[in-house]
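Curious: can you check?
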Amino acid sequence: MEGLQFPSRFVEGPITPEPAVATSLHRPHGEFSTASVSLLSSAAGSVEIWPDTLRATRLIWTHSTRTLLEHLLTFPGETWQQRWDASPLGRGEVDAQAVASRRTTGNSIMPGIRALYCLRAVRPTLLALRRNPPPNYDVTFIAAQDDPLLDTFAEQVRVHHFRHVHRRNALNELCMLLANQDVTLSDVTPASLLHFAHENRKARCVLQPGSRAANRFVGRGIWDVLHTMGHFPPSTPESLRAAMLRGPLRVDELVDQYEISNQAVRGLLIDYLTRRKADTDYSTLKGLARNLNYHFWKNIERINPDQKDLRIAPQDYAAWRQVITVKDDGKPRLGQDSIVIALRSFYYDLHTWAADEPERWAAWVAPCPIPPSELRGLGGRRRRINERSADRTRQRQPLLSSLVNYVETRYDRARLLLERADEAAEGDVFTHEGTEYRRIHTEADRKLLRHGDAVPTRVQETGSGQIIHIGTDEEGAFWDWAVVETLRHSGVRIEELCELTHLSIRQYQRANGEVIALLVIAPSKTDRERVIPMSAELFHVIASIVRRQTRTGRPIPVISRFDYHDKARSAPMPFLFQRQSGPTPMVFSPATIQVMLGRICGQLAEVQREFRGLKFTPHDFRRIFATELVNSGLPIHIGAALMGHLDIQTTRGYVAVFDEDVIRHYQTFLHDRRDIRPEGEYRDTTEQEWAEFEEHFDKRKVELGSCARPYGTPCQHEHACIRCPMLQINPKMVARLDELEEDLQVRRKRATAEQWLGEIDGIDLTLTFLRAERDEAHRLTRRSPVNLGLPHLRPPES
C-alpha cells in the first residue's frame, strides 16, 4: 500500500476503503469556523457544553484555547481550519509541548487543541492526532457532541467483553475517526472504518518508522461493537480483520497478475483455467495458474518475444527447460517435475477438448514440446523425494523426546510459578524452585485496579530485579505444549489442527459401560471426514484446552476462521485453538504455529547442539506419528485410516524406518488370504462377533495397566508384560513397579551368588524395561487432572 515501508497482506479486501460522507453538517453548538477568539475560547469553557466539569478546569480550558488561537492567528487564512492547516501543529510536524513552551507560561495548549476538535472548529489530520493525542479525549468529545447514537455506542462499549484498555481505545479511536472525517456516528460505514484503519497505519509508520507497533491496525474494537449493535449491514464481516483479508481472485485476476503480453494467449489461459476451476480447489487452481502463466508462458515471452502460439521450437523449449532449473533467487529448483507435468497436462487437455469443441479449442492445438524422455526417471526422482523425507524423519525422531520434555517442563514450571504468584499478595516474597520472587504491581496495574479491570500477574526476581509477566509466559508455554502434544499424539495435518472445534470431541460407549473418547477430524486435503480414538495423553491435552477456554465461566467463543489456502471464511464455530488478540479472539493460523515451533527449536538450540540448524514442522510430527504406528506393529492399512490417506501407498511414503519387504509380504498375505477364504466371510458382523470384538478389549487388561495389541492378535511376548512395548502402565500401579524391582534385585543377588550369568542378563534387561516404564508413568502423573465440570447423570424420573 502506498505510504507503507513494508509489504502488507491487508491491502484490499471485499470492501473498498473510503472515507465517510456526512449527510449533514454536524455543529451542535454552532459554527465556529470564523468565530472570534473571545467567542471560541468562551465556548471551550462553557458550562452548558461540559456541565460536569469543575469551574477551575473550565477556566484552564478557556485560557489554553485563547493561547492556541492567538498562535494560529500568526498563520495565513480566513478560517480557523485554513490557519490550522498552515501551521506545523496542524500538519503534525511539531509536538504541542514545544509550542506551549513558547506561547504560555508553562500551561499546556493540549486542552485548547482538544476543545477545537470537540467543537468541530478544525478538522485534524490523523498525523496531527497521533503526534499530539489529547488526554481524556473520548469523555470530552462525547459530551460535546449531543449525539444519542454515540452515547449508545459508549454504553455498549462498557458492557462489551473488553478489558479497560480496549474499552478506552475503542472510544478514543471512534472519536478520532469522527473528528478526522467530520461526520457523526450515523454516517460511519464499514468502508469508512477500513479507511480510518489504513490511514492511521500510515500515520503511525511516519511517526514510528521501523516499529512493530506501527504495523498494527486500530479500530478492531469499534468494528466489534458496531457489528454487535447492528449498525453495519448483516452481510458485513464480523471483524475488521475479516474485512481486510481478500477472498479468492477471479480467474482473470489470477492471470493478469503475471502481466501476459500476448492477449490471445492470455484469453486462452483464462478460458483454460475457467474450465479447470470446476474440478479443482482454489489452492490448486492458483498453483496451476502460477505454473502456466509465470513459469511457462512468461519465460517463453522472455526467450522469444515474437512467440504467437503454443507451437514451441525445440531450441526455445531447451532454453525454457534450463530457466526453470533454478529459482528467481538463484537456488536450485527441486519441484521442476510439477511444472513439467502441469504443462504436459495443459497440452493434452487442449487435444482432448478440441475433439468435442473444435470451434473453441482446435485453433490452439499444437504438439506438446515435452519429449517422452523428460518423464523417464520420474519414479526414481519421486523415490529420491521420499528418501529425503525419510532421512528428515530419521533425524528428528530421536530428538522428539527432548522437544516434548522441554515444552512440558517449561509449561509445568510456568504454571506452578503462576499458581504461587496468584496466591501471593502484592509485596509478598516466595521461593519457587530455588529462586526467590516478589509479587509486584506496576503503576499501570494499579490504574487497572482502580477501574475494576483484571490485573496481569507479574513477579520480580529479587536477585536480578528482572520483572516477569508470568501470566503471558504461562499462556505462551501452554500453547507451545498443547500444539506439540496434539500434533504428536494425533498425527493430524496443520489445517486439521487449526480446524478442531469443541464439536470435534465425541464419545462412544461400549456395552460394558466403558466410554471411549473420539476426535472427529473435519474434511481437509482428502475432503473426507475421519474419526480417531484419543489416547489418554491426547485426551488430557484436549481437555486442558477446553478447560482453559471456558475458565472464565463463558462458553468457548464462536468465531470464524479464515482459510489462507482457499481464501474463504468458515462458519462461526467454537474453535479450540484460539486466543485473545487485543479486543477480539482469533483462531491460530498455520503460519503462527510454524513460528511457534521455530521459536521452540531456536530456544533448544541454545542448550542442545543437535537442534542447531534444525527445525520441526507440523508435518514432521505427522511423519513420525505414522512411522511409530507402523513400526509398533499396527497394520499399515489401519494406519492409513488413522492418517486419513485414501491410498495405502501414501502411508508407505510417510514411514521412514520400515522394511519394504515386510509391507510387500504383508500385502501379499492379505491378498492370498482373501483368495482362499469363502466369500461368505466378507459380510456384516453378527451380534456374537461384535461381542467377541468388545471382549478382546476386556482381555487386554492386565495387572499393571492395559495391553495395546491390535484386535485379533495373541500375546507375542508370552505375557512378559514389563518387557513388552505394548504395555500401557496405569499410573496407579507405580507402587507395584517398585515392588517388582525389589523382587528382581533380590533375584539378581541370588543369581550373582550362584553365578547364573544368563539369569543375570535376563534380570538386567527386565530392570531396564521396568525403569523406562516407571519413568513414563511418573511423567504422566506429574500432570494435574483436568476437571471439565461435566454434569452428572440425573436419576431416572419415577
